[in-house]
Automatic annotation (TrEMBL), chain A:
It is an enzyme of class 2 (transferase). Residues 539-674 form the CheW-like domain. The lineage of its organism: Bacteria, Pseudomonadati, Pseudomonadota, Gammaproteobacteria, Alteromonadales. The modification Phosphohistidine is found at residue 48. Residues 1-105 form the HPt domain. Residues 334-537 form the Histidine kinase domain. It comes from Pseudoalteromonas neustonica. Its EC number is 2.7.13.3. Coiled coil: none annotated. Involved in the transmission of sensory signals from the chemoreceptors to the flagellar motors. CheA is autophosphorylated; it can transfer its phosphate group to either CheB or CheY. This is Chemotaxis protein CheA. It comes from the Bacteria. SUPFAM superfamilies: ATPase domain of HSP90 chaperone/DNA topoisomerase II/histidine kinase, CheW-like, Histidine-containing phosphotransfer domain, HPT domain, Homodimeric domain of signal transducing histidine kinase.
Automatic annotation (TrEMBL), chain B:
Residues 3-119 form the Response regulatory domain. This is Fis family transcriptional regulator. The modification 4-aspartylphosphate is found at residue 52. Coiled coil: none annotated. It comes from Pseudoalteromonas porphyrae.
TrEMBL record, chain C:
Pfam families: CheW (PF01584). GO terms for cellular component: cytosol. Its main location: cytoplasm. It is found in: Cytoplasm. It comes from Pseudoalteromonas porphyrae. PANTHER family: CHEMOTAXIS PROTEIN CHEW, CHEMOTAXIS SENSOR HISTIDINE KINASE-RELATED. This is Chemotaxis protein CheW. Keywords: Cytoplasm. It comes from the Bacteria.
Amino acid sequence: MSIDLSQFFEVFFEESFEGLDAMEAELLNLVPGEEDLETINTIFRAAHSIKGGSGTFGFNSVSDFTHVLETLLDQIREGKRELTTEHVDLLLKSVDCLRALLSALQSEQEPDLEEANALRLKFEAILGLGQSEHDNPNSECADEQQAEVNTYQIDFKPYHHLFKTGNEPLYMISELAELGELETHVSHNEIPDITDLTADDCFLSWRFFLNTEKEERVIREIFEWVEDDCDLTITLCGGLFSEDDTAQGAEENNPDSKIEPASSAPINTQEVKKAVVSKAPPPATESTSIRVGIDKVDSLINMVGELVITQAMLTQLGEQEITEATIASLQEGLAQLAHNTRDLQENVMRIRMLPISFVFSRFPRLVRDISQKLNKQVELKLLGEQTELDKTVMEKISDPMVHLVRNSLDHGLETVDQRLAVGKDPVGIVTLNAFHQGGNIVIEIMDDGQGLNTTKIKEKAIANGLIALGDELSDDEINELIFMPGFSTADAVSDISGRGVGMDVVRRNIQSLNGSVEVSSATGIGSTFTIRLPLTLAILDGQLVKVAKHTYIIPLISIVESLQIDITKVSRVGKDLDVLRLRDEYIPILRLYNIFNHQGAIETLDKTLLVVVESDNQKIGLLVDDLLSQQQVVIKSLEANYQKVDGVSGATILGDGRVSLIIDISGLIKLSGLRKPGSQELIIESQANLEAS
Amino acid sequence: MKRILAVDDSASMRQMVGFTLKKAGFDVTEAKDGSEALSIAKQQGFDAVISDVNMPIMDGITLIRELRTLPNYKFTPLLMLTTESGMDKKVEGKAAGATGWIVKPFNPEQLLAVIKKVIR
Amino acid sequence: MISGQSELDNKIMLEQAKGVKQFLTFIMADEEYGVDILTVQEIRSWEEITVLPNAPDYVKGVINLRGTIVPILDLRLRFGLPSIEYGPLTVVIVVKVNFEQGSKIMGVVVDAVSDVYSIAEEDAKTVPNFTDSDNSEFVAGLVNVGEKMVALLDLKKTMKIKCTH
């Protein structure tokens, strides 16, 4: 039976890369001297699996290299060796090296072994190994040249408990028979009286005479598993029937004898590899496949099942005579169909959605490496790792994020001395945060560093001719300048962030995904880069509302409650802002018709409805004429053929074919001027609290 | 048809073992760790179990020890997949009740040859 | 399928080779304007539209064009001409405009569609600077067709929407 191993390659590569990611993540968590066993075990298992798989599938360069890694990890795991920072560094480098080796193999290229060999020498130095140690034991082939036929006497006396090990003497005997000509003598002297006989035990013993050209070692291997469960003696004797031609004749006549017993077969992985490569499928294309959790697939199958049932029901109804009753059931059936379709659509979309942890996971390593290089102390915080976004968006957002994080580490965070001098904790904090907002995913990259240096930015912009000397610019406008093409404040192009790629490229890349990037900064406190990306293909649960004659959609997720306004609880703040006192909170009332400039809406507060929404931890009330239905909507981009509309995150097409706009709450707050630029606090809060006191 | 339970945390190894055994005419059930294997083994009967040693949640040695205590698995061949460096593991496995072992790396032909030692 | 369609294609290709382009013309306030026929996606009748908040007045809103959201501009308002009530003859010409950032599908409301002309590029005259309106920036060239004068539109400039903030 021949099995084409190459069919398992893709799975092997995929899980190996995952294993390497896991190794890397765990390695970064390791603090030498405080390591816990489970972490070491996880790392060991990952290395072990890669080694096992690569050996099995014929990737010897990988298995040889992983062998030294595994040996070191095993010693640490067994407590035979102390973990040091040097080990961690070396292991991290090995992770990179293995990634490169596996990538090369995946794309069917010859891997570059220089790095692997250099690293292996380092491991061997630590392990105190000579060259011979890493010789693959598999390369020791049974010497098949030897054709001399010998006769062995084999005495095999199993202990009583042999069956309880799961071994079966019968199969061993037939295996022996495959090695050559076998003569079998059974001894049943040991069988006790029927009264003492226990069915579970083995009371038989055997003497064999085997005429074979195999070595004694091969015979011993048959009994390898029961070595400690029997008395076994093998002696070479003159031969009872040692005529050479007998054995050879047997060999020729009996094709079965060509089946080599397991443990003696030479594992010529080199050959396996060659055979496999020649048959290999077309080059692996990485991002054309997606791994989907079995639960997602199961739920899809369930839904298709429901759909089929509904469809069957409708077909049946269609065949009946149409009466009032059938119309009612028909309507019911159609409602069910709509429900099924929506669920199915939603779940199909979810298949493409992956948690952003796939992107976040590369940052611990990045931050570790860069902070070492820069000699800064940095703590990386990851928030909202389970936030899902479309796979294609994910693949494209990674590079811009890397750039922004490098930038924060390089330019944002101060050195330990600088931080101590201004009374900050010596350890700087970089936070990555992801969350959904309307139809967007928002990714924030925050640092608690020195903030953007507006003076320096302005000087630079003037020097580069981006602005004129006399231009009056607000701080926000100055910060915006860093996204201009050809802008860079680093005095010398640094290795970390100045790789010839500017913020303008970051912005352009994000914009090409229909997203946006903004920066807010406070001197001495830190800066925050906010990336907003549409969840392409995303579906949103929406509340349809009426404003004058227009229908808008408010994302259901941001709605806290909808209520009729108790006019006695409304007070006017400042010039023209109404505030509703709702339990213990003050809710500013935003008149949507005002913000969107629509005529003909109801303006009296007690005849309208207030939809209380929450965004960025702030609650505001949106004044609408009426609440319509709730439904799931497919988000469509306005920017594809038009441009960004403030206060609107996108559009959708309603059941009747009309276009309806989806409200972007945080954009709306900005548009209404409720929030001071660069501040998180609503203007209203301070004022309202003042009045309350 | 003889039934085999194949346990490995590595999907590629599991697939390879599963595929090879299925092609050889066995009915194969796969499990991704010892704990999953144990609960499957308690619900269904198997003619043999092949398990990796190093696995998360429950390792192969523990699985074998647990299985051997079950009346249905008193005589069942329990094989472990181990690496050449794991001599200690072989001894530990034997003590836990393992029938034998298959040394990694192995190819499908070797796997079948080893399986033949315990079930036919 | 070796019929009219490919003959027409051949004709267009032949004329292009000679520097001749076909233009779709439409009427607006008694003037005739032309756009390169290759940019025209389709001609639709006026339909109910979804208003975009805070958009310039000449942006009427967006429609659903088989699942994509397409903005509609009123060319009269864009040119600063007095607007008229939309009627059954009011049409929307859907064009593909190639901006620097990529192409966009957009619609323009015009009074009525007129004709298709083949016009050689060398026949197009540049717009004299002394026209009384500031709409000359939208016009790529002027051309005489028989008695009439047709203004060829520069779509890129015409369809560019200024931000309102």
